[in-house]
Amino acid sequence: MSMLNGAANNRLLAALPNSDRQRIVSMLNGAADNRLLAALPNSDRRRILASCEPVELALAEELYAPWVPLRFIYFPISSFISLIMPTGDSGAFEVGMVGNEGMLGISLVLGAEVSSQRAVVQGAGLALRMEAAPFRRELRRSKALRGEIDRYLQLRMGQLAQATICAHFHLLEARVARRLLMTQDRSRANTFRGTHEVLASKLGVRRVGVTEAASSLQQRRLIHYSRGDITVLDRRGLMAAACKCYKADRESYDRILGQ
Predict the structure, then answer these.
(1) Which tens digits make up the pLDDT trace of 191-243?
(2) 159: helix, strand or coil
(3) Mind listing the domains of the chain with CATH numbers?
């Protein structure tokens, strides 16, 4: 119950039914569902958790807006977040995703107070939220935290480069398959939310192109979609349909994060 004591002033916890509160406290005490936190020594992890509060992130909730000062960093647990770069012509392009493998708030690590990207919740769920000031203090204090975040930053840089290559050189159907696999990985479920319109906005393409690609994948019985829900029916087949960027992403995770 140590995390509950450290979060005694958290109104969200206090308002929850006892069973839900116990579940969240247990999750926080172990922090095993966020891999970055789980990799830290126990003493560092407990100290960081004492400055965190659990929050439920809602689908499509905007956590960061471009050039607005960052107040919080987030460690996703069961949620995941899309990083979107405005294109300057009222469009946007997804440059990365953040799930339970890492954290949202890399700009603060680099000494910046703002981000050029939007951060929008793509998968609703639980996250740990920490204010910017105590996070900076922990970053100076904990060599282990700094080391894990440096490795995660390397991964994110590679993710951005891979997204750029994918957008310029690969066919849309293969890109859609890759994006669905990335979403499945972070949702940890076979069925998740994802409309054609949202996919098109993330990939920076027209909706009609995504509709054609998704229809082809459904006709091959790799996925099924209905009323905004997408179900992966054949993951192995979907991996074969995806571009090589998906495999490259997974290999980067294994080599850099060891997971």
Answers:
(1) 999 889 889 988 989 999 999 999 999 999 999 999 889 999 999 999 999 99
(2) helix
(3) 2-153 (2.60.120.10), 171-242 (1.10.10.10)
